[in-house]
Amino acid sequence: MAPSRWFFKRWRADLRFQCRVFSTVVDWTVALYLVIPCLILLAERYIAWWKGEAAWVAEVPSLLLWAAAFLFSWSGPFRLYLEPADQLFLMQRSDWMRTYTVTGLWFGWGKRALESGLFLGLLSPFLRYEIDSSLSFVGMGLFLWQAKACLALVRRFLAGMDGMLRKGLMTVFTLVLGGAAFMWIGEDGHPFGFYAGAAVLAGCWSLLAWLRSRQKGVLFTEIDYDQAQRMRWAALLLQTSGVVHQRFWVMKRPWLFPRSTPLFRRRTASRIVAEAVIKSFLRSGRQLVPYFQLVAFCAVALLVTPTVLRWGCWILFSFLFSLWGRSVWREWRSFNGMFAVWAQSGFKVRGAFQKAVFVLQQIGFLPLSAVMGAVTFGPWGMVWMIGAGWAVSWYTVSLFARRECQAPSKQPLEYPSEVEEGR
């Protein structure tokens, strides 16, 4: 097999792996309640920005836009999609390694063009207030493309440097020099500056690509880098990673409820189980961080959507946070043996589920109800919208409890003692 075909085979395998990762997380429920509404909101906002609602950008300093463009050019990995088994073949034939690397360089160059075009397409409603001619806009696209391609190779050369001090100084120097060049060319706004900068960066990329294709002794480093980048989205979405990152500091005691203070005054079986579920969630930073990120995202969605669509989003968020609470309940029930012990005593599973999921849902939905009331009716609307949110939450959680906690004849529970007797 030719090295170029080998590269594209590795790329397709990585693409299939990333699709499987996202399909594991984004099922039909997440797509229906989160992904599709987000796409609808983004399309509605994008059309509104083109109609003139983004005119406030003219008052924003243009340096912020060029700083965002530079950060975009600096971000993004440069990958060769190498696997550990590839070293058996590439180390024996240097010409194969050079052809494989050149194919990856040209593929990355074209990939940067697509990324830059998408970035400019998303920011074009804002950039039209800074760039007044189509010639300058095309020149900026070429400049951004070449800058992103060139900086990707520069970052790989910096990563291969020896010495932390030398690497840090060169990284800071590159950031300062590149940021200053972006600010200077962007603030000038002349088409010649964009086209000249793109030509210079294209020459720099050609030189860096020639050096990179003849660089030796970096195969194992590139394999480790590609494996880390391969598991990047899996680590973010599934909280699993093939690379173990050592923590500098480990918290030995949780910040919330460090002494296990009771949440409910009455100590019934259902309340104790619900309390255990709630505390396990509040003591887990792994669960709290994405939860509050979702709360912030939903709050922004309520701020920018029209009135009719805002009410629909508010109802939708009630179901969304109920689904989140139900997933926490299922995870705790699956990995905690306490549930089987209490279930043998005949306690009310539905009561425990409803109390736990209701509290978990209220943590995020009540602040959103307050935002909904403030945006729609003013400050006084926050008060009665919190009450309305409480009522909607109770009804939504009741619907989920009715489906989750069905009769034992429909959903038989197996306990460890029964399983052992069956064996």
Automatic annotation (TrEMBL):
Cellular component terms per the entry's GO annotation: membrane
Name assigned to this protein: ABC-2 type transport system permease protein
Classification via Pfam families: EcsB
Keywords, ordered alphabetically: Membrane, Transmembrane, Transmembrane helix
Signal peptide from the UniProt entry: none
Transmembrane parts of this sequence: 21-43, 63-82, 169-186, 192-211, 288-305, 311-329, 356-375, 381-401
Lineage: Bacteria, Bacillati, Bacillota, Bacilli, Bacillales
Xref: InterPro entries: EcsB_ABC
